[in-house]
Amino acid sequence: MSDFDQACSFIRNLPYRRNKNKNDLASVFKEQCGTCSTKHAILKQLAMENGMESIQLMIGIYKMNVKNTPPVGPTLEAFGLEFIPEAHCYLKRDGMILDCTKRKALEIDFDFDLMDEHEILPEQIGQFKVEYHQQFIKKWLSEYTHIPYGLNQMWNIREQCIENLEET
Fold it and tell me: Can you name the residues that pair with 89 across neighbouring β-strands?
């Protein structure tokens, strides 16, 4: 690879699967796979090492639903949910979303359903991301009182949705 776009293409074409240790960014290469977090964190690290200040690592919460994430449909339907707030990592280059999570990922996959976003550093894809995500769900549940689930139940539903994604 001789430039950032080729690196993005390489990472984008790796399978979507959780890494054994997401704090070890090299696991993306060792295991030849990654998630939105590990794939984008390694690309942000590459950008930082090459002085590419226009590349930002973002964490966004979007409404994960059957339209923007079809494999989660059966799980959401089983629990009577239209969507579930999902934390997603991606890059921004000059203000434009760059999503290298999967081969055919496009910013339109979630851009219209984005509920919140913040810039983060590669080392924040672990515990920080989990805590941010859970705090968001907790606040969301307090506003959507008709949803009959607590934080732990919602987290378990979300985990099933993520498993659905890994199976595709």
Answer: 59
Spatial CA neighbour of 136 closest among 151, 123, 157, 149 = 151
pTM above 0.70, yes or no: yes
- For 83-127, write each residue's pLDDT tens digit: 999 999 999 998 888 999 888 765 555 667 889 999 999 999 999
Tell the burial category of 86 from Cβ atoms under 10 Å away from its Cβ (0-12, 13-18, 19+): buried
Residue keyed to tokens 């059966």: 74
The domain segmentation of the chain, as residue ranges, is 4-166
Instruction: Describe the strand order of the beta sheet including 114-120 as a list of residue ranges.
Output: 96-98, 84-93, 55-64, 114-120
Of the candidates 167, 52, 35, 2, the one whose C-alpha atom is nearest the C-alpha of residue 105 is 35
